[in-house]
From TrEMBL, chain A:
Organism name: Micromonospora zingiberis
Family annotation (Pfam families): BPD_transp_1
GO cellular component entries: plasma membrane
InterPro entries according to UniProt: BP-dep_ABC_trans_perm (IPR050901), MetI-like (IPR000515), MetI-like_sf (IPR035906)
Topology versus the membrane: Multi-pass membrane protein
Protein name listed in UniProt: Carbohydrate ABC transporter permease
CDD domains from the UniProt entry: TM_PBP2
Automatic annotation (TrEMBL), chain B:
Listed name of the protein: Sugar ABC transporter permease
Subcellular location: Cell membrane; Membrane
Organism: Micromonospora zingiberis
Region (Disordered): 1-42
Transmembrane segments: 51-76, 106-136, 148-168, 201-220, 241-259, 295-317
Keywords: Membrane, Transmembrane, Transmembrane helix, Transport
Length: 277, 333
């Protein structure tokens, strides 16, 4: 009996290791490249023979990268806040209220979740040029909000449905005002859901490449993924590999931290929104 | 609802019913009892509807403004000859652009490539994702570690992952390039496509697995135990018990991933930039628009991609039947 459980554990352990290796290899590889010196960059070894921080110094010395990083953070944060607020309003209505057009709204958000983003690139390019939004922060924030909203609405309505709303009534019965009931009872219960949704939306905005590369043309609003693809190194003739890898690691770190700290929440957010609609 | 309606609803009724009584109110006879219970309810109902619409309006407006209007606009653009390099030659040409695109072999090559990538990656991901979901759901040791590391490919920026794969497969910088051949895999069509698919599969299998895991969680443990007692093998338990229960989750995961795979762009852009006929439809639409500045042709491709996606979605929704997400919303609340 004890023998079979150890064997089972061993088997699962091996499978676990396989998953971890599969998931982490490309990440570790790019990290390793980012710490290599130009001389050892091409040795194909997983562990750098000579460690250096030169690549990181290079990218933080260039305006190209720093500016893009600011753009990325600013655009993703603003889009996240707006999408979560609008999404929370809609999700509250969907999960708590009865009104005409509810099904339509759910249907529309489902459609947008599946919408081929490239279909919007040509018209948005032209529309934003005419409106003067091309190559500006709002020019990227708008499409990000749009495509983040279905995600936000689905995840948040799944969360809101689990909140025991009767507590609100109970608090009011005990003499709390509507505002107090909301602040003391409902808000703390809703906070984890909002937070999880914010992480998912942020990851989505942070990852986007297609809109960022189509709707920007200068450093003014170019985000890091796009800047990466244009990287040329400190001078034009320098091999940018090390610098690209360092920049890639910098924008990967926040995501890895999110995942490490909020794994459980991200999993529940992604799954609750998906299965039960 | 009725309990909720008592204090606030009564107030509304006191000053509301007389002026704004609708036909339905009038139809309710003057039985005092009945009326008092009904009138505040419907007034409350109306307030609820108004609040619901009000709360949804901003989200709905943004979504429609950024998708519906542009897609209609791109239909309009697709009917014109419109090249930003020669703006003077802009004119209405009807379906000319569609003829141009649909008789162009590059378009069909890209279409074929996209379809191939979609079918292969989604099929592989379904199998791998199911395996990963089972591991994440049932492993006896290290569940936290497995789930955390599985989330990393999901969270990572696609462009970053694509660069990692590109350097891995480039002779010189790479650890994989010389593993399978002496040449440079990213300079040949077949191996480039294989690498693009590998990168896609690596990146999106975890998402597939998470959706499937949500389905796995719905499988009742008792049912598995019962099947086990009745002598079902592991494979029988999987195919006869788990799969039927998971069917809706599987369909949702397939739909989302199929449409997502059809949009493949980032990986191709970084890995091959479309060289050696490895462009996807997104890639050539982008090239025609941003590189070629040809709005007419670019928009035509946009519309064609939109139509293709709509057809795929339609087929899936037909398959879904009642399992479509959101369809059970009427009863829930």
């Amino acid at each position: 009996m004890a023998d079979t459980t150890t064997r089972a554990k061993l088997r699962w352990g091996l499978l676990d290791v396989a998953v971890v290796v599969f998931a982490l290899t490309p990440v570790l590889w790019i990290m390793s490249l980012s710490f290599k010196t130009p001389a050892t960059l091409t040795d194909g070894k997983f562990i750098p023979r000579e460690w250096t921080l030169e690549n990181y110094r290079t990218i933080f010395a260039t305006d190209q990268f720093v500016r893009a990083l600011i753009n990325s953070i600013g655009i993703a944060l603003i889009a996240t806040v707006i999408a979560v607020v609008l999404g929370a309003m809609a999700a509250y209505a969907i999960s708590r209220l009865d009104f005409p057009g509810k099904r339509v709204l759910i249907g529309v958000s489902l459609l947008i979740a599946m919408f081929p983003q490239v279909s919007l690139v040509s018209p948005l390019f032209e529309i934003e040029r005419q409106l003067g939004l091309f190559d500006t922060w709002p020019g990227l924030i708008l499409p990000y909000i749009t495509f983040a909203l279905p995600l936000a609405i689905y995840t948040l309505s799944a969360f809101f449905k689990q909140i025991p709303w009767d507590l609100e009534k109970a608090a009011k019965m005990d003499g709390a005002t509507q505002a107090q009931a909301f602040r003391r009872v409902i808000a703390p219960l809703a906070a984890p859901g909002l937070f999880t949704t914010a992480i998912l939306v942020f990851i989505f905005c942070w990852n986007d490449f297609l809109f960022a590369i189509s709707l920007t043309s200068t450093e003014r609003s170019r985000t890091v993924p796009v800047a990466l693809s244009f990287f040329t190194g400190a001078s034009q003739f320098e091999d940018p590999t090390g610098a690209i890898c360092a920049a890639a690691v910098v924008i990967t770190v926040p995501i890895i931290l999110f995942v490490l700290f909020f794994q459980r929440r991200i999993v529940s957010g992604l799954t609750s929104g998906a299965v039960k609609g | 609802m009725s309990a909720n309606a008592t204090p606030a609803g009564a107030d509304v009724a006191a000053d509301g019913t007389d002026t704004r009584s609708t036909g339905r109110h009038a139809a309710v006879p003057a039985q005092r009892n009945n009326r008092r219970r009904k009138a505040p309810l419907s007034e409350n109902k109306r307030a609820e509807r108004r609040l619901g619409l009000l709360l949804c309006a901003p989200a709905a407006l943004v979504m429609l403004a950024v998708t519906a209007y542009p897609i209609l606009y791109s239909v309009w653009l697709s009917l014109q000859r419109y090249d930003l390099r020669f703006p003077a030659e802009r004119e209405f040409v009807g379906l000319q652009n569609y003829v141009t695109v649909l008789t162009n072999e590059f378009w069909w090559t890209a279409f074929g490539v996209t379809m191939l990538i979609t079918v292969v990656t989604v099929a592989v991901e379904l199998v791998l994702g199911m395996g990963l979901a089972l591991i994440m759901h049932r492993t006896l040791v290290g569940r936290g570690i497995v789930r955390t590391s599985a989330l990393i490919p999901y969270g990572i920026v696609t462009v970053v992952a694509a660069f990692s794969w590109r350097y891995a497969w480039t002779p010189g910088t790479g650890y994989l390039a010389n593993l399978f051949s002496d040449g440079a895999p990213l300079t040949e069509r077949a191996s480039s496509l294989a690498i693009i698919m590998l990168a896609e599969i690596w990146k999106t299998t975890p998402f597939m697995a998470l959706l499937l895991m949500a389905g796995l969680a719905l499988v009742p443990e008792d049912l598995l135990k019962a099947a086990s007692t009745d002598g079902a093998t592991a494979w029988q338990r999987f195919t006869k018990v788990m799969l039927p229960v998971m069917k809706p989750a599987i369909l949702v995961a397939l739909l989302f991933r199929t449409l997502d795979a059809f949009r493949v762009f980032d990986n191709i852009y970084v890995l091959t930039a479309g060289a050696n006929d490895t462009s996807s439809v997104s890639m050539i639409a982008y090239n025609n628009l941003i590189r070629g500045l040809n709005l007419g042709i670019g928009s035509t491709m946009s519309v064609l991609i939109f139509i293709t996606v709509a057809i795929i979605a339609f087929i899936f929704v037909k398959l879904f039947g009642t399992a479509a997400p959101g369809s059970d919303d009427g009863e829930r609340r």
